[in-house]
Write a structure and sequence with these properties.
- The chain has 206 residues and is α/β, with parallel strands linked by helices.
- The chain has one domain (8-199): Rossmann fold, CATH 3.40.50.
- It has helices spanning 12-15, 41-49, 61-76, 105-117, 143-146, 173-185, and strands spanning 8-9, 25-32, 86-90, 121-122, 125-127, 150-152, 161-169, 190-199.
- The chain has a six-stranded mixed β-sheet with strand order 1-2-8-7-3-4.
- Strand 7, helix 6 and strand 8 (190-199) form a beta-alpha-beta unit.
- The protein is globular, with a radius of gyration of 16 Å.
Length: 206
């Protein structure tokens, strides 16, 4: 299990998230340092959560399922109030949902949480078409680069607060794009983020 079992808040100034503002409320569960590989429990959890779907028929897929269940369980432990006016929104991946390459990890997490505590969920954010994962596109982190890659279907029943559920936050650029898509359709809705991990770039910071 990860060494860190609580939630922490992103501080845009302290953590270097230049695209986020003080109004962006984002929680993350653990810290993830890509340069360490899978040499510790935190990195192992992220690695298994993001395990490629090509491993679906392999024994190692069990560890992905474990990671998905872990993320769902820690979300269930959050002190949600007025649950009927909250909503969990699955963050899209780089592949659209109708793609045979789509990884349903975020969808699976919010579905598990809904079954356990009854909070409303939504899959109204999606990739418009398949693209390469951001981590393979070195240097492209400005939200303007991603703004045309995603679509959002407005909610039928507007919640007061939407929590975007995703795996790793590195720059916050995707969150900004998704937040703006939601706010354009629902100006009064508060958009927050729940992330499995925050990327740290050095072992010293880690």
């Amino acid at each position: 299990m990860p060494q860190k079992i609580s939630w922490s808040a992103i501080d845009p100034e302290l953590h270097g998230f230049q695209y986020l503002t003080r109004e962006d409320k984002i929680l993350y569960h653990i810290e993830y340092c890509p340069s360490l590989g899978i040499t510790n429990t935190n990195n192992s959890l992220v690695y298994n959560y993001k395990k490629d779907i090509s491993f679906k028929n392999e024994k190692s897929w069990y560890y992905k399922t474990q990671a998905i269940n872990h993320f769902a369980n820690i979300i269930c432990r959050l002190p949600f109030s007025d649950i009927d006016n909250r909503l969990l929104l699955s963050a899209p991946t780089s592949k659209c949902r109708n793609s045979e390459l789509f990884d349903s990890r975020n969808d699976d997490v919010i579905t598990l949480v809904h079954r356990k505590i009854g909070i409303p969920i939504s899959f109204n954010l999606d990739a418009i078409e398949d693209s390469s994962p951001t981590h393979s596109q070195s240097g492209y982190r400005n939200p303007s680069y991603f703004k045309d890659l995603f679509s959002f279907i407005p909610f039928v029943n507007e919640p007061k607060i939407v929590y975007i559920v995703d795996d790793v936050i590195t720059s916050g650029s995707h969150f900004v794009v998704w937040r703006d898509l939601i706010k354009n359709a629902h100006p009064s809705v508060k958009v927050r983020g729940l992330y499995l991990a925050r990327t740290v770039n050095t072992t010293k910071e880690f």
